[in-house]
Structures are given as structure tokens and as C-alpha cells.
Write a structure and sequence with these properties.
Chain B: GO terms for molecular function: steroid dehydrogenase activity, acting on the CH-CH group of donors. Chain B: InterPro entries: FAD-dep_OxRdtase_2_FAD-bd, FAD/NAD-bd_sf, Fum_R/Succ_DH_flav-like_C_sf, Fum_Rdtase/Succ_DH_flav-like_C, SdhA/FrdA/AprA, Succ_DH/fumarate_Rdtase_cat_sf. The complex is a heterodimer. Chain A has ten helices and seven strands. By secondary structure, chain A is of the alpha+beta class. In chain A, strand 3 and strand 4 form a beta hairpin. The longest helix of chain A has 17 residues. Chain A is elongated, with a radius of gyration of 21 Å. Chain B has 20 helices and 20 strands. In chain B, a hairpin with a 5-residue loop joins strand 19 and strand 20. Chain B has four domains: 288 residues, FAD/NAD(P)-binding domain, CATH 3.50.50.60; 139 residues, Flavocytochrome C3, Chain A, domain 1 (Alpha-Beta Complex); 99 residues, Fumarate reductase/succinate dehydrogenase flavoprotein-like, C-terminal domain (Methane Monooxygenase Hydroxylase, Chain G, domain 1); 36 residues, no CATH class. Helices cover 38% and strands 15% of the residues of chain B. In chain B, strands 7-3-2-11-18 form a five-stranded parallel β-sheet, covered by helices on one side. In chain B, strands 1-10-9-8 form a four-stranded mixed β-sheet. Chain B has a four-stranded antiparallel β-sheet with strand order 17-12-19-20. Classes of the chains: A alpha+beta, B alpha/beta. The interface between A and B is large, with 60 and 72 residues. The site of flavin-adenine dinucleotide has 45 residues of chain B, from helix 1, helix 4, strand 8, helix 5 and strand 16.
Amino acid sequence: MGTQRHFRIWRGDDETGDLVDFDVEVNEGEVVLDIVHRVQATQAPDLAVRWNCKAGKCGSCSAEINGMPKLMCMTRMSTFGRDETVTVTPLRTFPVIRDLVTDVSFNYRKAREMPAFAPPEGVAPGEYRMQQVDVERSQEFRKCIECFLCQNTCHVVRDHEENKQAFSGPRLFIRAAELDMHPLDAKDDRKEVAQAEQGLGYCNITKCCTEVCPEGIHITDNAIIPMKERVVDRRYDPIFWLGRKIFRRPGMPEKPADGRRG
Amino acid sequence: MTDIERHSYDVVVVGAGGAGLRAAIEARLAGKRTAIICKSLFGKAHTVMAEGGAAAAMGNVNPNDNWQVHFRDTMRGGKFMNHWRMAELHAKEAPERIWELETYGALFDRTPDGKISQRNFGGHEYPRLAHVGDRTGLELIRTLQQKIVSLQQDDFAETGDYEAKIKVFAECTVTELLVTDGRIAGAFGYQRESGEFVLFEAPAVVLATGGIGKSFKVTSNSWEYTGDGHALALRAGAKLLNMEFVQFHPTGMVWPPSVKGILVTESVRGDGGVLRNSEGKRFMFDYVPDVFRKQYAETEDEGDRWYTDPDNNRRPPELLPRDEVARAINAEVKAGRGSPHGGVFLDIASRRSADYIHKRLPSMYHQFKELADVDITKEPMEVGPTCHYVMGGVEVDPDTAAAAVPGLFAAGEVSGGMHGSNRLGGNSLSDLLVFGKRAGEGAASYVDGLAERPAVAQADVDAASEEALAPFAREGGENPYEVHSELQQTLNDLVGIIRREEELTTAVKRIAELRARVDAVAAPPGRKYNPGWHLCLDLRNMLLVGECVARAALERQESRGGHTRDDYPGMNPEWRKVNLVCSSSPAGDVDVVRQPMPVMPMGLQHLFDRAELAKYVTEEELTAYDAAPSGDGAADEEEEN
Ligand SMILES: Cc1cc2nc3c(=O)[nH]c(=O)nc-3n(C[C@H](O)[C@H](O)[C@H](O)COP(=O)(O)OP(=O)(O)OC[C@H]3O[C@@H](n4cnc5c(N)ncnc54)[C@H](O)[C@@H]3O)c2cc1C
């Protein structure tokens, strides 16, 4: 029924590791995750891999497949040549825990620093009124399944561990944009916070994040660029400038971050 | 055992899906130090997969909707096996719970006047499901996740520590509840990353662990669904209610094999999709059962008109409750009128524009395109039944979500009673919110009422750790993956959508044989993130729960909702009065007993026509109904809303 295919899967932990070869059966219609599971069931029962829904909805099974950041559950075997070796490695930007599982706590830490939705004062539950056209912009960003492929791909942090401190990454930029465009969010300094505390300025718009997003979210065009543009607008608005000087948020630097790093 | 990490909390919530997160929010708001424990990463629980929506009678699309109508639909859907009080609380409180999500930042799709939009779904009389395209579960879990983060930010502002009052232990699996003198004293588990053990000392535990689908071969459920919470509750001395009721969703993908079982949301039918057999016939018109005949269209024209004029037409039979549709599909395939890969056709391509489909069903479009090379705007899908949801679960007090063991609470899919013999689509997400909140409240006030906290017994901790390590000691034991796949096949074949006595008896026997094998599975060495070991431990739970399902299914000699007996077709009003309750000895021997179903107050009974009620209840019950003055109680309820 199936054909035999060649796989190379990275195995190891935070100290050492290597690619390990597996010859494994592949059947019609299967995805990479199916094959990883078959390896697990028949050859390497302790092969560590995260997964959950197997339908592209939970964003757990992120990995690099032949060097491309992808969801294993949505990568069909039919996209490879018959004799092509399929190499599966863990996300490079995050520390390995074991095999294909990485420590993605960076993303949760950054999420925790992101100011939460601020409900509008005086609007009772059940009284929220918003137009579909107005919620759609934010809804695009709320499609995010937190697979962190964008975070993994972004070269601001992919090759620069030192930037992780100051840079939150595309996942959090779309969160900032989502709240900024939320028709009823009561906070009005989302862009400034993104610039000053999340390192929006580090992004130099190479669009790598957008390319790998399995949800097809237009991260760069619809979130990052508008956020940057409006930050620029406001920075030269003298009234805003004044206000910003006087009511400076703690921890907000005097000078915006350099936009050309990374 | 000195190497065990110890934590002390007021309330420990096991599970980070909708129910667990909502419970944790409530416990934290009540001032309790709260831990959330989950097997996956934070934000990835099974709830994330929910598609269609959350049912709540807000009346935004059709102002005739109200809690009474929702209550009626829920009871009908469950074939009157629901705990009336749960169905009542759910119908009344669901709207508030949904509106509350907006204050946490949720963005539902809107009506033209800016309210939350609501869509049609099987068994719901009016458009009732709040939704976000077909990714409602994602919106729900993300919103709750972000609310937890915002509470942590409040705590940070106050104490300088994000985790002062609420902490998430992700990728941590609870393997045992610890009970001291009959009361909950804590929970024991392992961390996936390190493989190290962790002990939570806490007087109250809320189980919100979801379902059991991974015991079945064809399922829409994720790997997490190994029935842990059901098994933990049993072993702690709590009881499981009506485990025979398992929902097979009528529309799972059937091809290619690797995606068999993955869900095709009911919204496809709610938004105009129809089912056809290989002859192109809309066969559902042939399968409308008597109890529903008055509410469903008799012709295709009438059914089609309903989408735009629901006040003057009846709904198409594709939107019957799930059990009816699943059985119909099963029958068509058996009769040789199935699709090439053993399902039937679900067609929306010929009925709605490509634009409409893209807009309303984006993730279905994506799923079929990516996984099956099918463009659902151009061709029909092939679909068939898939194990989807367990109605049975931990027996709880409806108001507080308390289980039989003091200190133990349960909410969400792991709890039983709310959905009777069959859950309506959309009623789970709202259930999670309504009873998640109540469980958090219940746990908090239980803790407030305690004079003294039960102490964890060291012997219990030692026993739990020994049990968890046992698979490493079994050299040359069986491969857990193989045993798992046999268990799945057994339940699928013998305790599936259509059941009969011989098969169920065989299933019980096979499960007993499998038990010996589960006790002998061996884990590959190494405790660090070792899925082989994890599966060994999950198997124990899957087996115990599988046995409950098989035993209860054997016991109930009638067909109702998610339990269809070939040898006992049809509902039996006498059986409606009987709950089947499973318990387990510490050694894991399951016992099934019959328990009377709580009687619905007359005020609620009178929300139903006599003629309708007569289809479900005994003569005796009807006499009582006739004797009570009509409208009694119902009128008061009306005002309360
Ligand atoms: C594909 C699909 C679509 C659906 N669509 C809808 C819909 O449109 N509307 C609707 O109302 N319902 C829908 N449902 C049903 C609904 O999604 C589930 O019933 C519901 O999400 C269950 O939520 P929960 O909070 O009970 O548990 P879950 O969200 O499943 O969460 C369970 C949690 O418990 C944790 N856990 C389990 N065991 C342990 C353990 N031993 N130790 C520690 N943690 C543990 C898990 O890690 C997880 O965090 C759908 C279901 C599926 C499969």
C-alpha cells in the first residue's frame, strides 16, 4: 500500500543532538505529523513532539521541515518529491527541550508584558455595540493560533539572542494592533507602547513573518506597517509630543529605538 | 521521596480549556490562590478546536428567543435525560457569560445593529450561536487566556509578582488525586519537560479535563482526550453519570485516511449545506423521527425557504439533532448508497456562492483544501460519523458543581448531566462558561467553609509516584502504542454508534483482557519529555473509562440520543427515569448501579405541551402533569428571566 520514504529527524536535548535517519512507510494523503507519529509508534517510542488538534487549529506542532518553518499537521507528504529526504528539526529560535520540542516560554513572557484589553468605562456587559466592518480588522489578528512560527522566523531574534530582551516579536505586534484597532478598547497609547516597550522599531519589514503564517494573517501590511506609520505621525504632532514628555510612562525611553537594527 | 516539587494552593484547577479557565478566573476573583494545570501549552486545550459557536438565548437575531425556548431545545436534544436544573441554569445564565467575554476583549461577529450575531444550529429553534466565523473556540480560549494574563498583571501591579495569586503549570499532567479522610487534600502529577513529579497541596480541586474521544479510533478529539478527569474522579471515589451516552458527530472527514474523523462543523448545514447520498437524494427527509415531525420541513422547498423566512417555514431535516443525523448517515452507507470512501456527500458548493462560503466557513475551506485537495466552493465534501463528545461524566451538584467527594468539583465536558443523552451543538461552549464559573465559585466557598485543611498523606504520595514510575520497571513489556490502537479499535467496533448485546459483552471481555496488557506496558527509558511513558499512564485512564462506557451501554436496554441499541430500538419511558451511575473500587473494579432521575418541577414541565411530553414520559408522570395547575411556577420563572 504505502511507499517507503526517508526521514531525518533531529533528536537530542539542550546539550547535544543530531539528525537521525528513519525509513518509514508513507500512505496516500498523509501529512508530516502522521509520519512522525508512525516513527514514534514503531521505531522511537520516546520521540518528543508537541501536537494537539492535528487540524491546523491549535498551533502546537510547529517545526522546521527542510528548513522551512511549518505546522507538521498541515504539511502534506505529497508536496515532496518521491525520493526527497524529509528533514524535520525543532524551531531554531527557541531553546530545545528534547527532540522536536522547544522552550517557547519567551512568547508567554512577552504576552504577559503586553497591556491587556481595557474595557470602556460605563458600558455594561450586553451593551457593547460594534459594527462588523470595525471588528474585522482586529478579527484578522485574532485568527492567530500562537504557533510562534512568525516569532521563530523573525531574524531580529532568530540570529540575535541579545535582542530578545527588548523585542516582543510579530506575534505581539499583531496583538498590539488588534487592541489598537479594537473599537472599544479604552487605552489610546497602544502604538507608543509597541514602539517604546515592545521594540517595534527593530522590525525592518522584511515580511518573513507574514510568509510563514499558517493563518495567512497579513502581519506586516495590516499590523506592523500601520502601527509604525501612526507612531511616526504622532511623534511629530507637537501636542502629543508635549503630552508625552509630561506624562511619560515609566520605563519609556527618551529616544525611540533605532529602526534599522536586526 | 524528597525530590518532589511541592506547591500549596487554595484551589487547583485541572484543565485549561474553557471550563478550567473560567473556573480559575472565578476562584481568583474570590480571592483564592489558584493553580491551573494543563497537559498542553497554555491556550492550546481542546476548546481551541470548537468551531460553530456558543449557544445563548440573547435574542439578537430573533427576538422571540429566551431562556425558556433554549431550555426546551436542550431538553429535547437530550431526550429528557438532562438534569433539569443544569439545563435551566445553563439556559438562564449563558447570555451573561457571553456578554462578559466582551468585557474581557472578545470580538464576536456582529449583527447589522452592532450586537453579537447568532447563527442557526441543529436542534436550536432560533439562531442562537454567538460565533466568530468558524473559529469560535479559539476566540473563547484566547479571550479567557488573556483575561487570566490581565489578572496576573493586576497582581503584579500590587505585589510585584505576576504569579502571586494565579499560576499556570503548563505541560504538567495530574495522575492522581490525593484524598485524606474522604476529603480532597491535593493532586499529584509530573512535568512533561523534566519528567519530575510535582505535588499540589490544596483542599479544593476543580476537574475541567474534557472528554474521552481518544479511546475511539475515529474521533474529532485531540490527544488530550484520554478521559483523565473521569478516571481521576472515579479513583478518588466520585461517580460517573450515564457514560453510555457518547456523541458521534454526523460529519467528520472520511478521506484521506490520515484525517479520518476530523470535524466538519455543523455550521456547514446551518449555513445552507445539505446531505445527499450517492443517488443525489437529500435523504434526511426520510429520517425525521415522530418526536420531531412537527418541527421539521417535509419538502425541500419548505426547508430552503426556512433559511430566509424561518417564521413561516420549518427547518430542513439536515438540522435535526446530531444523533438522528449520524444514524441516518450510518444507515445510508449500510444500504449501499454511500460516497466512494464510505461516507455521504455534504454539499454547500451548489447552494451558496463561493464568496459566502469563504466568508462564513473560512477554516473549513482551508481544511479541505489543504488536507484533502477538495475545494468546497466547487465540490461536495465526503463526510461520516466521528466520535465527538461524551455526555456522560462526573456526577455533580448543579448549583455548585460539587462532586460526591468533598473538595472535588467538575465542570465542562468532564461533568455529566447537563446534556442528557445528546448534546446540542453550541451548548458545550456555553456550558463551559456557566458551570466553569459556578465551579470556581463552589470551590472558593467550600474553601471558605473549611475549619482545617486536610493534610496530604506521605504514603499516598509514595504510592502515586510508584504507580507513575511502574512502566519504567517493566522490561520487555508491551508497546503502549499497540495496546492503545487495540483499545481504540475495540471501542470503535463494539461500543460504537450502533450497539448490541453480544458485541457489548465481547467488548467488556476484551477490555478485561486489555487490562492485563495495560498493566504490562513498558515505557522507553528517560523521564524527560517522553511520550511513550506518558501514553503508558494515559492508557490506564482510557481503559477504565472505556469499561464504564461499555458496561453502562450493556445495561441500558433502550435507544436514546448517543446510545443506540440495535436490539432495543426506540426510547422507553421507564428507562428515562433511570440514571446509570458508575463507581470504582480502589483496585479499579467498575460497578454500575441504577439511580432515579431527579424529577423536573411542574413549572418547568409546563413549558412543554402535553402532547410533546407524552412522547417521553410514563402515564404516571403524565397524570402528575395533568394534576398540576398549568403555568404554575413557569409564570414566576418568566419574570425572573
Ligand atoms: C472539532 C470540535 C469542534 C467543536 N465545536 C464546538 C462548537 O462549535 N460549539 C460547542 O459548544 N462545542 C464544540 N465542541 C465541543 C467543545 O469544544 C468541547 O466540549 C469543550 O471545548 C470542552 O472544554 P473543556 O473546558 O471541558 O475541556 P478542554 O478544552 O478539552 O480542556 C481540557 C483541559 O484539561 C487538561 N487536562 C486533561 N487531562 C489532564 C491531566 N491529567 N492533567 C492536567 N491537565 C489535564 C488539558 O490539557 C486541557 O487543558 C467541539 C469539539 C470538537 C472536537
